[in-house]
Every structure is written in C-alpha cells, then in structure tokens.
Hints:
Low-confidence stretches: none
Number of helices: 0
Oligomer: single chain
Number of strands: 4
Distance between the termini: 77 Å
Largest sheet: 2 strands, antiparallel
Radius of gyration: 25 Å
Amino acid sequence: MPSKIIQVKEYTVRAHQREIHTRTFNFVCKQCDEPTQRETFGIRPLYCERCRPPQAPKKSAVPLKKRKPRPMTYKSDEGKVG
C-alpha cells in the first residue's frame, strides 16, 4: 500500500505533517463508462477525476465558539488642553 507525506493546515490544531495510506483503484467510471485508475485513501471511487475532480473538504456547519473581546488601546489625553 503506497503512502504519502502531506502537509496538513488546520485551524483547530497546530499545522503538522501526517502520513496517510493510499490505494490505487482500477475501475470503470459510472458516468463516462471509461476504464480508469484513481488513487484514494478512502473507499473505492465511483467516478474518474475528469467527471468528478477532487474537492477541498467541506467546512463544518457548527459555528466556532464566540471569542473573548480583545482589550482596546487608547491614546492618552495628556497633551490636550480642554
């Protein structure tokens, strides 16, 4: 089983490198009925990369926790006469 080193950049964890195990599948595309080959780390794909190109992972619908307000910095009024 071939392996790859990929660069992972996440917001919830520190960016790091992770080794994933991939497999190369030979199959017939469900849409264009052409014999094709595709490398994936998941289950056997149904479509070739031309019919269904790889997409970025979807963002989760769960909103992030509300952040604490940051302290404001104000300029001092020492030089003003009023």
